[in-house]
Structures are given as C-alpha cells and as structure tokens.
Amino acid sequence: MDWNRFHASASIALLRTLLICINVIFVFSGGILFLLGIVLRGKLSTLLDITPEMSSSAPYILIGLGLIIFFIGLFAFWCTLKGHVALLYLYSTVVFLIFAAEILLAVTVLMKQQTYVDTLKSSLTNVMREYENEPMKSHVDRLQETLSCCGVDSYEDWFQTPYGQTLLQVPVSCCKKDLNHECSHVNLKKGYLQADINTNGCYATVIGVIKNNYPIFGGIIIVIALFPLIGVILACCLARQMRKQRYEQVA
C-alpha cells in the first residue's frame, strides 16, 4: 500500500467533509441574515422612516447579503463535490470578500449606534412639528402606538408644536390601548384627562430599543462572519491537497 497516497486521500476526504459541513452552516447563515433583514425592517421600520440618520437601506443590505451568501453556499457544494481546484480558489476569493463585507457591516452598525442616539431627539422633534403633513403623521402615529409613548420627553412636548399648541391636544395615537371609553386628548391641562393618554416620552423608549437591539445585530453578524473565514481556509487547503495529489499521480 502506498501510504503517501492513502494519507493524501484521507486528508482530502476529511477536508471535503469539513468543508461540506461549513457550507451547510454557510447556507443557513445566509438565511439568518435574510431573516434578520426582514425582522429589522419590520420591527424598526417606523424608527428607520422617522430618523434619516438611520439608513432605511440597512435591512435591504442584510437581505441582499443573505441571498448572496445562500447561493454562494450552494455553489460551494458543487465545487466541493466536483473537486475543481480553480473553482475552489475562486470560491475562497469570493467568500473572503463576503467575510470582509460582513465585518465592515458589523463595525459600521456598532459605531453608528452613538450617532443614532445623539441625533434621535432632534429628529423626533422635527417630525412632530410636521405632524399635520403626510407621511410624517403616519410615521409618528405608528411609533407612538407601537411603543405606547407620547411626545419626545413627555406628552407636553406636543403643546410646543403647531398641531397641539392651540387646543393643548395630542394625537389619538397617544391614547392608552385598554380604555373602555372614548379617549380625551384635547385640553390636556385639565389634570383628570391625562389618565387617558400615555404620558411617557418616546425618546427614552426608542433609546432602549436601539441599545438593546444593535449589539445583538452586530454580534450576530460577527459570529456569522467567522464561518466564511473557516470556509476560505478549508477550501484553500482542499485545493492545495487535490493539486498535490494530481501532481503525484502524474509523477
């Protein structure tokens, strides 16, 4: 028995098996990024629409990247099973670029968190001043209804806007959800009427959403990015072993 050839064949089989396992994870990671983009668009859609600093294209970048990773993972299965050395190197190059893109995306998400926090209050204030115009009205109503909040720091912020300063009113979206009577949201200086509305502001609530979700999103992207890096290493090792084996067979 030629132990060198046996060792080479065993190494190729092991590398191929490991690469297939990584490719399975790679395909699933693409699906996770795709779903993450959909969740981000759904859960934070109102916030993304209200604050221009929070790019509304971010969810679609995740969705697109997830689809690319998914199809490249399927392509990697074919390369691994067929054993094309050139295609394995091509796969390694493309996956390494995806790895770099994922790391860049994660770092950008984490670095911009403070920017979003710093500019959020002014963005919310400006949107409230334009409340009587669409689509601002729909965005503010959806935000206040979803988070059960009213105004920036409190419901009284509405009294400083063109909408609320005349009648001392707040939008109906400030009303509490469990009322068993018609919500009173006009002439709110009359103290007993304040029980019908949410008095807490949206700023603190949104800040909590950002701080709770952004580290999670960034961490998921970084963890997912590790699998392409492992795939690059295994693909290069497999291509090298296969090329070496072919040279030995010719020799």
Distance, first to last CA: 17 Å
Report the sheet-strand fraction. under 5%
Uncertain spans: none
Query: What class would the helix/strand composition place it in?
Result: mainly alpha
Mean pLDDT across every amino acid position: 77
Element-level helix/strand string: HHHHHHH
- Supply Rg: 27 Å
Number of helices: 7
Summary?
This protein has 251 residues and is mainly α. It has helices at 3-43, 45-50, 58-82, 85-111, 113-129, 136-147, 202-250.
Question: How would you describe the overall organization of this protein?
Answer:
The model has no long low-confidence stretch (mean pLDDT 77). This protein starts with a helix and ends with a helix. It has helices at 3-43, 45-50, 58-82, 85-111, 113-129, 136-147, 202-250. The protein is mostly helical and 251 residues long.
List the helices and strands and how they pair.
Blueprint: H1 3-43, H2 45-50, H3 58-82, H4 85-111, H5 113-129, H6 136-147, H7 202-250
Helix pairs in contact: 1-3, 1-7, 3-4, 4-7, 5-7
Keywords:
mainly alpha; rod-shaped
